[in-house]
Amino acid sequence: MERLQFVEKLPVAGAKDIRFSRIGIGFEKLDRDVFDPEKAYDKVARIGVKKIRVQSGWARTEKSEGVYDFAWLDKIVDNLIYRGLEPWICLCYGNPIYTDLAKPVFGAVGCPPIATEREMNAWLAYVRATVAHFKDRVSIFEIWNEPDLNYSWRHAENEEVDHLRNADEYGEFALKTAMAIKAADAGAKAMGFALGRADDLEYVNRALSTGLYNYLDLISFHCYSPSELTRRNRAHKLRVLIDSYNPKIGLVQGETGAQSRSDGNGAMKGFAWTPEKQVKALLRGLVMDMAEGVEFTSYFSTMDMIEALRGRLADKASYMDFGYFGVIGAQFDENGRASGEYKEKPAYYALQTLASLMRGDCEPCRLPWRFEALPSRRVNGTDCTDSTVQVETFTLDNGGKALIYWNAVDLLTATYEGTVSLQIFGVQASSIRLLDLKDGSVYTLPDTMVEDMGKGGVRLRNLPLTDCPLAILFD
After folding, report:
1. What is the model's pLDDT at position 339?
2. What are the phi and psi torsion angles at 98 (to 5°)?
3. What number of H helices and E strands is found in the chain?
4. DSSP character for 326?
5. Residues 307-330: what's their mean pLDDT?
6. Are 140 and 194 in contact (CB under 8 A)?
7. What is the rounded CA–CA span in Å between residue 332 and residue 221?
8. Is the peptide bond before 152 cis (omega within 30 degrees of 0)?
9. Of all residues in the chain, what percent are helix, strand and coil, respectively (each to 5)?
10. How do 441-444 and 432-436 pair as beta strands?
């Protein structure tokens, strides 16, 4: 950025200061009490996202048959709403007072209440009670979490998984659950799937064919991949399948993230993650989601915390597996609970910048542009025009335009710094600034980099190009 003139840091807004956003964040696993929300409320509110995902915790709420204690969840929901956030609730997991399989499982994770009529009726009663209790505070209820993955839809320990059977079961389960949601609050939205694998179209198709599509308002998918290009392709194909059933069902990216350390557990464990790579993955992925046009996209997660997907109550070591997906970091105590100082990571500030830029009615748009290969002294040759260079264009809430671009080299094994030249049409040469999304720095371009081509065309010469998204802003 040394050729550019620094102007300011992009002004950021907290959740109370914005009316709407398609960028959200997760506040998950508090059904298992894995971090102290009191230390995180103010920090997450300052990011400037709106929608925030919490998990309901059937086992924590109904410890005696037919008796629901929502006090713990009330406190979380009310604190988030007070700070301007909009909680949505994932209804999960099992309950050991009804399901034997859930008794030894930490948090009753992945133990669906489907083996007996008693279990299912208890689940539906819990769903109705939860939705009714949070009426006028929560409007979106998600049905289970990643039921297409083995850890989250189990019948017995070490069973041979029947994936298609599970799809049929989930379809029937979600159908009844969605009907219970609507019965408790006709204005509530039912969200299905929370898919762990967005490309498993056979699973989705079988579940929808039960008639589930008639009762869903939204379908969510998760994506953990170091390639945002794969992610967008999967989302597009999923959208096409949903449209074949009901194009009015909205598509949500409900959980995605990357770690800031290479020793973390959970998705993509063992990969060579660093704080810098976490920033790049966050920005590249969320921009792609916005470009695909999802209803909203949610980053996982606010906090570093234990993964505990296969934890056992009698075996503490089985859930002392720490994940470092948070935009806020923490230490961990002897029980695996996030403790110590909760400290913002570089990813926190990158998300804050992106949320402020793309707040409100930010939408993908068609802005005519093309690459131009010009001589570039910066690289001792010519501008980059590689097919890996990604360009996405948006109309911002203030009526301005943003062209966001980066070189999508392999996130884990490569970095890139070069230049790119662009011709852009329908904009004014006098209103151009460049925003570094990773830290919010705003720059003006020197006259040597900007040429007014006339007729609403602008040539931008030898712009900095990196593997982390930059945004050209047009007022």
Report:
1. 95
2. -120, -30
3. 9, 25
4. -
5. 94
6. no
7. 29
8. no
9. 30, 30, 40
10. antiparallel
* Six token digits for residue 141: 């209820």
Summarize the confidence of residues 82-90 as an average pLDDT. 98
Beta strand 375-376 with 381-382: parallel, antiparallel or unpaired?
antiparallel
Model confidence at 374, in pLDDT bands (50, 70, 90)?
A: very high
Q: Which of 347, 217, 266 is nearest to 34 (CA)?
A: 266
- Predicted confidence band at 462 (pLDDT cuts at 50, 70, 90)? very high
- What would you measure as the largest C-alpha separation in the chain, in angstroms? 74
Please compute, for residue 368, the number of CA atoms within 13 A of its CA located in the half-sphere on the CB side: 8
pTM of the shown model = 0.97
- Cβ burial of 160 (10 Å; 0-12, 13-18, 19+) is exposed
pLDDT per residue as tens digits for the range 330-367: 999 999 999 999 999 999 999 999 999 999 999 999 99
Structure tokens given for 12: 């950021």
For residue 93, cis peptide bond before it (omega within 30 degrees of 0): yes
Alpha carbon distance 296, 284 (integer Å): 15
The pair of three-digit structure tokens given for residue 30, joined into one six-digit string = 């508090």
Please give the C-alpha separations between residue 441 and each of 101, 231, 450, 470, in angstroms, as whole numbers.
52, 28, 19, 10
pLDDT tens-digit map of 202-230: 999 999 999 999 999 999 999 999 999 98
The Cα-based distances of 149 to 53, 197, 209, 252 in angstroms read: 20, 8, 19, 18
| CA dihedral sign, ordered 460, 7, 354, 260 | positive
pLDDT tens profile 136-158: 999 999 999 999 999 999 998 77
